[in-house]
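Fig. S4 source data, part A: sequence.
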Amino acid sequence: MAIDQKFINQFVNVTSKAALASYHLVGKKDKIAADKAAVDKMRTELNKIDMEGEVVIGEGELDEAPMLFIGEKLGTKKGPKLDIAVDPLEGTNFVANNLPGALSVISVAEKSNLLNAPETYMNKISANVSDPNIIDLDNSVKKNIYNLAEYKDKQPSDLTACVLDRPRHKKIINELKNLKVNLKLITDGDVSGALLVTDQKYNVDIFLGIGGGPEGVLAASALDAFDCFFQCRFLFNTIEDKNRAKKMGIIDLEKKYYLKEIITGDSIFCATGITSGDLVSGINIDSNDFTSETLITHKSAGLKKIIKIKQKI
């Protein structure tokens, strides 16, 4: 079964309207208000769609932020049953401080085809390789880089690695420096970071490190359409995290997930820019109109492109 293509424009509209709602708070130093604006607008727009939607990946638990919560039912209840993953505002700090790279993101899959991921951290790695034996979470950084360099017929010094700039990644960053790998360090926004491997124009060969679990599943939805490699492993640091995971059906807490285990079947992914970044341009307002730019993928239709839309505010 494939998700009807009629939903593409509807979900693009959802992320575009959520992005616009958050855009009004760019530079206002209030990330909670910016997140709430995006959440509220996304919920309103999703409830207009003829579907029986259920949020299987929500956002906000870790930040005590407003959220579209896991288990929340959305849509008119008339239409197909769909699982929904959301990050209405990825990059709350980007919006609060008027920095590049904020996105409004959604992924929609057929019922039970999207991994039900808890709001916790995960170790993840992505690259645009078709051979599953090139990179692996269980390899050393050195082995992954040497394998990838050989696969791409490059030197390690010709490769670029994208990593979240966090103290927890000090060892990884130092290893990459020692291997003479070019670094692209990002302060937030690891959905975008993971997707920079999809196209040569972004000049990123590999994304690796620890980031949000929900963001990993969202990125996997788009990476699937690009036939990229993605692997992840959840990190459960507390008994509460472990118990929540078990309630969500995750029995093996050490399991290493491959892309096809995270998302099966068809999916639609939309990421609309709020502030301009590497992936897409941000919202632009001209009088009573606004223009949005969205990266959209629809696996069954083979759709993977960036579209620009002009709408009335």
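Fig. S4 source data, part B ends here. The longest helix spans residues 6-23.
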